[in-house]
């Protein structure tokens, strides 16, 4: 198992490009199950989750190949397999996105109940309710969702839940409904750009979906989809993470391949905190984090509000803003396992219910910390970049699921960060108790 060793206190400076969106690429890859003919996807990041989805699709009869130009080539070569095994699905929640296209195209599917990051309870009841409304017979057997339908039928259905619309549920139902006889209307559909990107991909293959980007989708069923070429949208979560990294280290960074129109709430909140963002031609943006940071209250809600996937990074940033800030997550209220690890670095932060209360303005100090999920990993790396001294961030396999070559790209911006095997010998001497090289406040 690997870990990061980070020497903090270096302002990030330079230019780097944002990768394609993981959360768009995964359901789009899954939707390739529904096509007749080859599909070429550009902008798919080389991530652990992408490789997991590729391996899962291969077990379902899809040939998957990464071309020399970085594009992903997919083509269904065997329509018989329709079982998504536990061993692969348990690794990643987005694996459940194969359920809709399998059911719609092949009329049957057996998909293991999904795994993924430990960020709270995330049932798939809305997925199943939507597919049942289309006429599917669904049962849970020995940990698998077993679904059958001779021909799905268009219906009016509602996908709202206690914490808002379901993103993967909308993707699943939409990918199935394109084959339903008649017209399907989805109310309370997720409006996220990643859902819209999936819809554009399906339309390019011959689907007839209108209302993309709104809470109401209308889908007129078709008999078949043809292969196509598609470019995945930029990753708004990665862009936000790098923007916050620049601000936390008091640096100046230019990002390429950014869709600011997908990040309005995050941009406005960063500007409120004191980060300066200047759009540039051809999808670039310059981030100036050299000014003073101000406290703020942030609430994570479904799109177009601040994403839950940026909550942990904003919490890290606000530890450096003098004053009291409150960060609330109404999407996944239990997603605060990073708070106790930030406290190990000297952050004055505590959890109260679905919120983190931050008394910011004190410098962070290097420490050994452990990541609990993908975005917590990123937040702890950002904290380590801003901290005084050396830090170790463990369990970075979480981070590898969602950020492509993260440490390499941070080094391009001047960060002192290296990946090493997690062994006692690789822990910096400054982090050992009573070390002569530790700060006096830690060694006392």
TrEMBL record:
Sorted UniProt keywords: Cell cycle, Cell division, Cell shape, Cell wall biogenesis/degradation, Cytoplasm, Peptidoglycan synthesis, Pyruvate, Transferase
Positions of the catalytic residues: 117
A matching Pfam family: EPSP_synthase
Modified residues (2-(S-cysteinyl)pyruvic acid O-phosphothioketal): 117
GO cellular component terms listed in the entry, alphabetical order: cytoplasm
Binding annotation for phosphoenolpyruvate: 22-23
GO biological process: cell division; cell wall organization; peptidoglycan biosynthetic process; regulation of cell shape; UDP-N-acetylgalactosamine biosynthetic process
Cytoplasm in keyword set: yes
SUPFAM superfamilies the UniProt entry points to: EPT/RTPC-like (SSF55205)
Entry binding sites for UDP-N-acetyl-alpha-D-glucosamine: 93, 122-126, 309, 331
Catalysis: reaction(s): phosphoenolpyruvate + UDP-N-acetyl-alpha-D-glucosamine = UDP-N-acetyl-3-O-(1-carboxyvinyl)-alpha-D-glucosamine + phosphate
Gene3D superfamilies (alphabetical): Enolpyruvate transferase domain
Record-stated family: Belongs to the EPSP synthase family. MurA subfamily.
Protein name: UDP-N-acetylglucosamine 1-carboxyvinyltransferase
Species for this entry: Maioricimonas rarisocia
């Amino acid at each position: 198992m690997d870990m990061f060793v980070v020497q903090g206190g270096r302002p990030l400076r330079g230019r780097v490009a944002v990768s394609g969106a993981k959360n768009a690429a995964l359901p789009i890859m899954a939707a390739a199950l529904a096509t007749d003919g080859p599909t070429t996807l550009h902008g798919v990041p080389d991530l652990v989750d992408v490789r997991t989805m590729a391996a899962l699709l291969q077990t379902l009869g899809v040939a998957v190949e990464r071309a020399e130009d970085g594009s992903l080539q997919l083509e269904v070569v065997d329509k018989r397999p329709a079982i998504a095994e536990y061993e692969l699905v348990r690794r990643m929640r987005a694996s459940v996105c194969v359920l809709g296209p399998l059911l719609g195209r092949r009329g049957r599917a057996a998909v293991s109940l999904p795994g993924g990051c430990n960020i709270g309870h995330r049932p798939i009841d809305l997925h199943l309710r939507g597919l049942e409304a289309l006429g599917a017979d669904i049962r849970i057997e020995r940990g698998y969702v077993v679904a059958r339908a001779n021909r799905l039928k268009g219906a009016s259905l509602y996908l709202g839940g206690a914490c808002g619309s379901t993103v993967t549920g909308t993707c699943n139902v939409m990918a199935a409904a394109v084959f339903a006889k008649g017209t399907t209307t989805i109310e309370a559909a997720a409006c996220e750009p990643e859902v819209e990107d999936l819809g554009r991909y399906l339309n390019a293959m011959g689907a007839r979906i209108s209302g993309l980007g709104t809470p109401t989708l209308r889908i007129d069923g078709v008999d078949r989809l043809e292969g196509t070429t598609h470019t995945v949208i930029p990753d708004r979560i990665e862009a936000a993470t790098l923007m916050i990294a620049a601000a936390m280290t008091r640096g100046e960074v230019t990002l390429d391949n950014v869709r600011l129109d997908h990040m309005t709430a995050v941009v406005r909140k960063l500007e409120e905190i004191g980060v300066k963002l200047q759009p540039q031609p051809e999808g670039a943006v310059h981030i100036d984090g050299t000014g003073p940071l101000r406290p703020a209250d942030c609430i994570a809600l479904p799109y177009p509000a601040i994403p839950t996937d940026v909550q942990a990074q904003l919490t890290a940033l606000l530890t450096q803003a003098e004053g009291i800030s409150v960060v609330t997550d109404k999407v996944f209220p239990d997603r605060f396992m990073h708070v106790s690890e930030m406290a190990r670095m000297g952050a004055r932060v505590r959890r109260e219910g679905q919120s983190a209360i931050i008394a910011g303005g004190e410098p962070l100090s290097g420490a050994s910390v452990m990541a609990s999920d993908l975005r917590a990993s990123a937040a702890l790396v950002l904290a380590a970049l801003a901290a005084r001294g050396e830090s170790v961030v463990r369990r970075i396999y979480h981070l590898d699921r969602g950020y492509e070559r993260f440490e390499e790209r941070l080094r391009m911006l001047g960060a002192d960060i290296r990946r090493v095997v997690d062994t006692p010998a690789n822990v910096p001497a400054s982090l050992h108790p009573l070390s002569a090289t530790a700060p006096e406040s830690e060694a006392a």
